[in-house]
């Protein structure tokens, strides 16, 4: 495959992933700063914040359904067509959020409309990740599969970075202007990113792995049934492995925004800046870690990051408690910027290597999205509830992070490292 086409494939997997996560993280941050006041209006501010976070969590529970729908299309019709659908769906929902009337204008219809668009957003991202990842991994030369698989993972942090930059600029506005119209601007601008993403994907062919499945006549009628019947162990492994990648991530990036500002007295700008710096560092490290996994193996890197996450849980909160902006920056950079990078860099490629090409889209999507639903969207909600129950003590939240690491280590223990095998042969030796 020529370099120009390869470059386009990598840009397509990265751009789509970046746009999806720009939209998604935008919601997560605005949920903490705006939606609890404009959409989920309640006399008790904590209840308003919890309702706002619940709407954030809601899309994570719809994601597996989006994953089932779009991975079915992806394993039946192809990766490329599916990616156009998921991107369009997500873009329409996010653009719509920027135009919504508030609770003060239309009462109960405001949160209902917001939640409806949030569910549409969740359906879109449910199918997007698997397609973007397989676009990169199934085109990759065997010796560079870890690097290629890490590229769409950069979309998570690039999208978050774009969202954070957009909101940081908007928070420079006077409070009244930000709360009235400033928060809406990034949602509306996202339409331009979607148009660019669709244009990039237009010139790409179907992946070699899917073409082989088509030629062999092995395209399954119901990929979900075949996956749950023959690959349920691999799905459980993937769900468990996802936990430590997703729960601490949302604590370091979303929960910290309300925790640091409301409980510890940090400014919104300082907190968002800390997250932004950490995001830049992890974006640089992800492809480096992906490349390293091609040399030393994915499982080793994943275990290294997971153990690091458990060790850092208590020091992270202790550093925040010192109420120093410098320590806030350092803690966020270590957790989100350095420790998280090897885990997320290898996760997608590792998932791809344990599933057969004919159900690969369905397999990786189920594992990833169920894991995200159970541990990701609920993480800010769980952390906020633990703080509320234990008199603002961070100890239960730190223990929760350690628990996610232990769970993921248990899940990954049975996986054989397939970094040195050809992709479409790797499924022949089962994960368990």
UniProtKB/TrEMBL annotation:
It holds the Pfam family Sugar_tr. CDD domains: MFS_ShiA_like (cd17369). Residues 9-422 form the Major facilitator superfamily (MFS) profile domain. PROSITE patterns: MFS, SUGAR_TRANSPORT_1, SUGAR_TRANSPORT_2. It comes from the Bacteria. It is found in: Cell membrane. It is a multi-pass membrane protein. The keyword Ion transport does not apply. Its main location: membrane. Keywords: Cell membrane, Membrane, Transmembrane, Transmembrane helix, Transport. The keyword Transport applies. The chain crosses the membrane at residues 21-41, 47-70, 82-102, 108-135, 147-169, 181-200, 235-257, 269-289, 301-319, 325-351, 363-387, 393-415. Gene3D superfamilies: MFS general substrate transporter like domains. PANTHER family: SHIKIMATE TRANSPORTER. This is Metabolite-proton symporter. The lineage of its organism: Bacteria, Bacillati, Bacillota, Bacilli, Bacillales.
């Amino acid at each position: 495959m020529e370099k120009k086409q390869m470059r386009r494939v990598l840009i397509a997997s990265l751009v789509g992933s970046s746009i999806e996560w720009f939209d998604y993280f935008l919601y997560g941050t605005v949920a903490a700063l705006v939606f609890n006041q404009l959409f989920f209006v309640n006399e008790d501010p904590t209840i308003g914040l919890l309702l706002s976070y619940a709407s954030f969590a809601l899309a994570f529970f719809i994601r597996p359904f989006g994953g089932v729908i779009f991975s079915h299309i992806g394993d039946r019709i192809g990766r490329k067509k599916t990616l156009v659908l998921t991107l369009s769906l997500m873009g329409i929902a996010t653009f719509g959020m920027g135009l919504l009337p508030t609770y003060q204008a239309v009462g109960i219809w405001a949160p209902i409309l917001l939640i409806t668009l949030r569910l549409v957003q969740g359906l879109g991202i449910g199918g997007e990740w698997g397609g973007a990842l397989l676009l990169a991994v199934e085109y990759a030369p065997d010796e560079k599969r870890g690097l290629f698989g890490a590229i769409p993972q950069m979309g998570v942090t690039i999208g978050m970075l774009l969202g954070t930059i957009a909101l940081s600029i908007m928070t420079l506005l006077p409070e009244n202007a930000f709360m009235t119209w400033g928060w809406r601007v990034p949602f509306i601008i996202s339409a331009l990113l979607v148009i660019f993403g669709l244009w990039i994907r237009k010139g790409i062919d179907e992946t070699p792995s899917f073409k082989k499945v088509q030629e062999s006549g092995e395209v399954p009628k119901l990929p979900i049934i075949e996956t749950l019947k023959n690959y349920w162990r691999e799905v459980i492994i993937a769900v468990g492995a996802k936990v430590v990648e997703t729960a601490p991530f949302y604590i370091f990036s979303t929960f910290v925004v309300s925790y640091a500002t409301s409980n510890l007295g940090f400014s919104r700008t300082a907190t968002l800046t800390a997250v932004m710096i950490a995001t830049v560092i992890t974006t640089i490290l992800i492809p480096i870690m992906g490349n390293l996994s091609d040399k030393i193996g994915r499982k080793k890197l994943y275990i290294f990051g997971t153990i690091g996450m458990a060790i850092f849980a208590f020091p992270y909160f202790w550093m925040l408690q010192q109420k120093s902006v410098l320590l806030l920056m350092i803690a966020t950079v270590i957790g989100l910027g350095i420790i998280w990078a090897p885990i997320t860099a290898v996760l997608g490629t590792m998932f791809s290597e344990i599933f057969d090409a004919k159900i690969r889209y369905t397999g990786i999507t189920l594992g990833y999205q169920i894991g995200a639903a159970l541990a990701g969207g609920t993480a800010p909600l769980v952390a906020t509830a633990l703080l509320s129950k234990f008199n603002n003590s961070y100890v239960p939240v730190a223990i929760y992070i350690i628990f996610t690491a232990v769970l993921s280590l248990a899940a990954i223990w049975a996986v054989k490292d397939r970094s040195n095998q050809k992709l479409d042969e790797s499924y022949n030796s089962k994960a368990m």
